[in-house]
Design brief:
The structure is a single chain. The protein is of the alpha+beta class and about 260 residues long. The protein folds into two domains: about 100 residues, 2-Layer Sandwich (Alpha-Beta Plaits); about 130 residues, Alpha-Beta Plaits. About 40% of the residues lie in helices and about 25% in strands. Strands 1-3-2-8-5-7-6-4 form an eight-stranded antiparallel beta barrel, surrounded by four helices. The chain is globular and about 60 Å long.
């Protein structure tokens, strides 16, 4: 019996290792030129997303920020088999005659994009499977964590061992978790080095449900214990004292595969 259990444990371990997501993800943030956001959406809806797939680029999701801080932004995530393939496939997309035609036609009356940010990411080992999904109407929350110096591994460990399970317990849907790949930076609100960043996406039934869920999560004795123990071991907070945790609510575009 013990041998059978040992073999089963080994099989499960090997299965989880083989299932690790080794793809490279790219988060791209587009700042639309004044008055051009709807035209930008139209280009993605009618051309870009299809041409991404044609050229081997996987669409994960497309969102716009909610509220007064939206600033004409389009935030999206795509995936490639590897960093090297990202270069090849992006270049193939740019060289595609159908893209060149769509791009030229869409910009006859001026550029649609004033600024672009691009950040490459790797899935954490505790992230749920990163694939598009659609569910009942829901709101998305992007959270940007900056670890205090030397504590990204400890922050990931706390999420792996405690936080993600407690989120689910309190009705918060875990979607995607990433760390930046080396030498990458993120500038949604602040700019920080890759070895300090945890970026993740959650889903809630509503903004009101998000507030209630996080209140219950913070009041949970299990969370209090996990936080206290992790901070005692690290000698302080695992997140930076300034802008250590940033939350941005998002709503999916009509052409997003994740809704």
């Amino acid at each position: 019996m013990n041998k059978i259990l040992a073999l089963l444990a080994m099989t499960l371990t090997l299965g989880s290792l083989s299932a690790a997501d080794t793809r490279v993800f790219e988060m791209r943030i587009y700042y639309a030129a004044p008055g051009k956001l709807e035209a930008l959406h139209a280009r993605f809806r009618d051309h870009t997303t299809k041409l991404f797939e044609k050229n081997g680029i996987t669409n994960i999701g497309y969102w716009v920020p909610e509220g007064v801080n939206s600033q004409g932004k389009l935030v999206y995530v795509i995936a490639y088999p590897s960093r090297e393939e990202s270069k090849k496939r992006w270049q193939a997309f740019l060289n595609d005659p159908d893209w060149k035609k769509a791009f030229a036609a869409s910009e006859k009356e001026g550029k649609l994009v004033a600024k672009i940010e691009s950040h490459f990411m790797a899935a954490t080992d505790y992230s749920p499977e990163i694939k598009p999904s659609a569910a009942a109407p829901r709101v998305f929350e992007f959270r940007d964590y900056t670890a205090s110096p030397g504590n990204l591994a400890a922050l990931n460990a706390r999420f792996r061992n405690h936080t993600v399970a407690l989120f689910e317990k309190h009705g918060i849907k875990n979607l995607f978790y990433w760390n930046l790949t080396p030498d990458q930076k993120i500038e949604i609100e602040v700019e920080m080095e890759a070895d300090k960043k945890l970026l993740y996406l959650l889903a809630h039934k509503s903004r009101e449900a998000a507030v209630e869920s996080f209140k219950n999560f913070r009041d949970d004795a299990a969370w209090g214990k996990a936080r206290a123990e992790s901070e005692k071991k690290a000698g302080g907070s695992l997140t930076a004292s300034k802008d250590g945790v940033i939350s941005l609510f998002l709503k999916p575009t009509d052409y997003s595969p994740t809704k």
